[in-house]
Amino acid sequence: MKRYVNSFIFRALIGALMGIAICLMLYGFGMYDEIIIDNKPYVLMQFIGSALNGIICMGSTIVYDIDNLGLSKVTLFHYVITLVSFFSFNFLLGWFSEFNIILILAVFTVAYFIIWLVNYLIYKREIRRMNIDLEDIKQKAGESDE
């Protein structure tokens, strides 16, 4: 249990930093009007909301560490968690007030799928390397027994 808590805290901190970094990039690229930028409570709300969204999205990746659930179940569970979090902060903080909800959902889903696919391929390649290394160890152990 302690392992899960420590992992969650570590991932949540990374998520908070990523959320803040994304918020900073949006400000840096001029995504907000000068009037909004001068409104310090609004800016603070944006940074806190971005950090909290990052905490929820990254912290909830802990579900992938649950061994007795299949990959499709944990992926769907994490997708729903991040989707609900994203839309909640979207409506609370007005991130995409002028956009169509269907378009936001489509972009979110495509982005989620791309990130998931990249991670899946990375882990699959790593598992393949580990299996090759394991076979090499087995062969060396077999040769030393002879």
Verbal overview:
It is a single chain. The chain is mainly alpha-helical and 146 residues long. It contains five helices and no strands. The longest helix is centred in the last third of the chain and has 45 residues, at 101-145. The chain has helices at residues 2-28, 34-37, 40-59, 71-93, 101-145. The chain is elongated, with a radius of gyration of 21 Å. It is 82% helix and 0% strand. The mean pLDDT is 86.
Keywords:
82% helix; mainly alpha; 146 residues; 5 helices
Q: Rough shape? A: elongated
| Intertermini distance | 44 Å
What count of helical segments does DSSP give? Answer: 5
Task: Report strand %.
Answer: under 5%
Quick summary of this structure?
The protein has 146 residues and is mainly alpha-helical. The chain has helices at residues 2-28, 34-37, 40-59, 71-93, 101-145. Helix content is 82%, strand content 0%.
